[in-house]
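INFO batch 0412 | record 1 of 1 | parsing
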Amino acid sequence: MNVILNPGQSDTRKGARTLLATSDLTGKENYLLKITNDGGVAKFALPAAVTDFAVFICASGDVAANDNSAEAPGVDENCRVLLTGTCNPGDPLCLDPNNWGKVYVPAGSSGATNVLFVAEEAGVAGQLVLSRRVGPYPKTF
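INFO prediction complete | emitting tokens
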């Protein structure tokens, strides 16, 4: 935000966000996180539903009481997200309900979910697949 043109945006910041977490995020680097409300305090958390808006990529995970850092890629840039299963360029990537914080390509009859990213390359399980944030885009598979 340009605070010179719009002084009302003076307390905004670009880049990584540092918050406490609702649970231990040690070793969760590159997992997708969401911001959640904990008694009026913003905290990072792993997603818990396929409809969660989890677009923050964990950069530095730690125990809940310590600072945890994450970035939210803009829709004008690509990023890498942790993949379960396989994908091809153009595939919709959604939160994996069996591996919270990772994405997968839903099969037909998977039900309602949010497309959060689109794959920009082919990928295999465990890969940090190149993708672009597009969501949430509600879709039923």
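INFO post-check: The chain has no helices and ten strands.
INFO record closed
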